[in-house]
Write a structure and sequence with these properties.
Layout lengths: L1 H45 L8 H15 L2 H30 L2 H4 L7 H20 L1 H9 L3 H26 L2 H26 L12 H26 L1 H8 L2 H37 L3 H38 L4 H31 L4 H25 L1 H27 L3 H14 L2 H13 L5 H23 L2 H10 L7
Helix pairs in contact: 1-5, 1-7, 1-10, 1-11, 2-3, 2-6, 2-9, 2-11, 3-5, 3-9, 5-8, 6-8, 7-8, 9-14, 10-11, 10-14, 11-12, 11-13, 12-13, 12-16, 12-17, 12-18, 13-15, 14-15, 17-18
Keywords: Cell membrane, Membrane, Transmembrane, Transmembrane helix
InterPro entries: Poly_Biosynth_Transport
Subcellular location: Cell membrane
Length: 499
Amino acid sequence: MLKNVLANWSNIILSVVSVFFLYPFCVQVLGEEQYGIWLLISSITGYFALLQLGVPLANVRFISKYYARGEMEKVNEVVSSNFLFFSISGAVVFICGIGIAFLIDVVFQVPPEFRRVARLATIIVSLNVALSFSFEVFEGLLHGLQKFVYFNMVKNLLLLVRVVLTFVVLKYENGMLVLGELLMGVTLLQAAFFYIFVRFKHPEIRIRKKYFNFDVFKMVAGYSFYVLLFQFASKISFNTSSMVVGSVISVQAIVFFTIANNFIIYFMQLVSGVSNAIMPRVSQFDALNKKSGLQDIYLKYSRLTAFIVVPVCFGLFIFGGDFIALWMGERYREVSGNILSVLTLSSLFFLVQRGVAFPILMGTSHLRFPTFLMAGTALLNLLLSLWWGSVYGLYGVAWGMTVPNFVNTVGLIWYTCRVLKVPVRDYLFRGVLIPLSAGIFFSIPGLLVHRAISIDSYLKFSGMIFVSVVVYLICCFAFYMDTEGRKEVFRKFGLSFVS
């Protein structure tokens, strides 16, 4: 499973690096207003994914389950039935996108000179989402079969192509339409690669009319209802900020907020690299009734994920403003840096549960409580963001997102421990407090270096982070890793272990 996690992380890390280079470039070429509109369009069309009704994740659940049992007839029924569903949903998406295109300047504060191009860009992006719907079944297959290495190899290659083309073409064309056309080209190429892989590596899996089974789809859809509601709530919690800022503040302010929010979104995707790899394994354990294996996954991967989340969140909270100033310019340091600090507070605790607890509950079909919990906190998020955003500006939106995440974290820990019969006190100590205490070994050396030198270059910033990470890893190895873990590390490097 570690290989699959690393494969998922490779794409997320590459995505973060691409944003690092593309974001300031696009702001410079398109301007804050036009790029703010592009971010707004991306946020709006991101909600189209909800029309998949949660079926993609249900696909992973049932494909991995039936494939583990060798029931290929069932696998083909799930794949074929959902391909028809995705194709119909894609057509609905495109129709909705056309309607939204002619309303975007009515609902949001789009400057007159950008209204026409905003409408066209919305139509193009909507068509891209519609096409990706039809091809979603191939992604679900690769996830369900745990082919994460090939999946991410293709995505990484096409991401690099898109980044290079953006730098080359955007300089000359200078418009949102180019970004939309590049997205569509990548979607078509990616679908072709995935189809070829499934066709030749797994010829026993076929999409055929004879496999269309409405009863199978109803079974998947019954499971999907809670996934859909959870995804809708997640969208409100983490991807509505652009619309909130665009409606109560301005489209220009979207850029300031998105700079900070992108750190959290991409970090959450990094954590999702763990959950995507956990999900098929959980489904297999649940199908084979291995309860102890599920407990081990929750405790082990919560601890592992927490040891990853802690230094990153400490780094974002303490040094985020410095990096933003280097990356985007001094103009963004204070506002975007402070927003990032606020958003990081809840992420320190929430992301572990989002990355580990939810895929376990989803893989074991315990979705009712976490789904309604997420829906309730998402509604609270939206109300607080609109209220506090209209009163306190961008900082109010940030706190409106942060407070509900704390509530969500408490609820997920309590419920998951109850389902898996893990003592809450034991989990809090092993999975939360111990990793959190390790954060001191990252923050202290970083603060000492920060006081000694002025962070005015990427080289100095990288040096400060390097020192903090090295000290953190050494202390984690010395104080937090058990004897067996140390032995394994020494074996990996061909060394003999001395206790």
